[in-house]
Design a protein that fits this description.
By secondary structure, the chain is α/β, with parallel strands linked by helices. Helices cover 43% and strands 13% of the residues. It is built from six helices and five strands. Strands 3-4-5 form a three-stranded parallel sheet, sandwiched between helices. It has a two-stranded parallel sheet with strand order 1-2. The longest helix has 15 residues. The radius of gyration is 20 Å and the shape is globular.
Length: 150
Amino acid sequence: MSRLMLTSSGLTVVLLRAARRVWISIPAWEQRLKPYALGRAIPFAWLPIPSGLCQPKAEAVTALRGALGAHHPMIGHLGTFGSPIVSLLDGVLPEVLQLAPAPHVLLIGSGSQPYQQEFLQRHPAYSGRVTATDALSDAELAEHVAACDL
């Protein structure tokens, strides 16, 4: 029995071959996906994902970035920090924190502070570069998400 192994680009070609239209979450995906349509004229349409977050005040976001170290790229993670996510973060965060320029990681959400403490116990070299919020109000959540570059 032979196995068919497809790469992600191969799977993209297969999916686009079967598609009559493609909905994308950000317009930049159209440029990245069109080459895999192999010349087929498939319509691509932007279908923005709505957000329940309010629009934060620019001054509040600027102040927050300053307090967290705005001279660093800010990488955020919003979640509940349950065991499936924590195991993934444990594998990724040390690599992310070694990038240049040195990023600051902002952990947002319930359970983020205990995770931050455990992470920094294992990786004390990153102290001062990983911040946690725990639960936030809606306005604070919007400010923290807006403060992130990624």
